[in-house]
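[Q] Does anyone have a clean C-alpha cell version of this?
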Amino acid sequence: MTFLLLMLAALAALLAAISIGSAGPSALTLWRDGWQDPGSAGELARLLLWEVRMPRALAAFAAGGLLAITGVWMQALLRNPLADPYVLGVSGGAAVGGLTALTLGSGSATAVVAGSASLGALLATALVFALAHGRGAWTAERLLLTGVVVAAGASALVSLLLSLAEERQLRGMLFWLMGDVSLASNPWPLLLALACSLPLAVAIGRPLNVLARGELQARALGLAVQPLRLGLFLATSVLTGLVVVTVGSVGFVGLLVPHAVRRTIGTDHRLVAPASALAGGTLLVLADLAARTIVAPRQLPVGALTALLGVPWVLWVIARARRPGT
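[A] Here you go.
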C-alpha cells in the first residue's frame, strides 16, 4: 500500500511539474493544445510540455531518487541517521571538482566536468575516511565530525574558485552551486544511473540489514564488510558527482528522506531503498516546482528550499535523540 501511494504521489508530482509553469497557458489549455492543435498554439504547447518541462521534471526526479539512495547507503554503513553525502563533504568535493573543470575552460565538455566532479567526490570521501581513521578504528561520530570539517574546507575552496571565475560565468556558477535544475536539458544519464542503482540497492538490502546489527556480528555471519563498504562509498561518490554536475549541490534530500521512510515502513533496506528513491524523487520535483513558481518569473535555487526543509528536521532528530526513552 505504501509503495502504491508513493508511486501515485510521484506520478502526480511529475504531472504537476509538466503542467504548471511560471508562464504560458493554463494546464488544461496546455494539454488540449499539445494534443489537438496543429497550429502555432499547439506547437508552443508541445514545446513547453515535452522539450522544456518534461526533461526538467525527469531530471529532478532522478536526482532526488539518487540522492535518497546514496543517503540510505551512507546511513546504513555508518548506522547514523544524520549521515548523507552533503553532510559528509562528498557533495562539497564534487562541487570543487566540477567548478575546477569549469574554471579551466571545460564548460562545454560535460563528460570532463562530470568526471572531475566524481573524482572530487571520491577524493573527499577518501580524505574523510583517512582523517577519521587516525591511529585507531573510526567511529560514526568521528566520521561525521570529520565530514563536517571537510565540507567546510570544500566550501572555502569553492569560494576561492568563484573569486577566480570570469564575471560572465559567476551567476550561473552560483545558481548551480545552490541547486539549479533549469540547466538539466538531458535527464537520461541520471535516469540511467537511477535505473541501474535501484536493482543494486535492492540486491544489497539483505547484507545491509545484517550490517545494521553491528560490524562484529556481520563478520561473524560471513559478510565481507570491507569490500561492501568500499564498493558502496565508491558508488556513492560517482552518483553524487553525477547529480552535482546535473542539478548542482542539493542538500538534505539524502538525509531527510531515508530517515522519514524508515519511520514509516521499517528498517528493511530491501524496501527502504526503493521507497526512498520514490519519495526523494517526488520531493525534489515538488521543490523544483515551488522554486520556479513561488516568485515567478524569477526562479529560486532549489537547494535553498530543500535546506529549509532539512535543517529543522536535523534539529528535531538531534533534540529527539537527546531525550531519554526516545
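[Q] Thanks! Anything notable?
[A] DSSP finds 14 helices and no strands in the chain.
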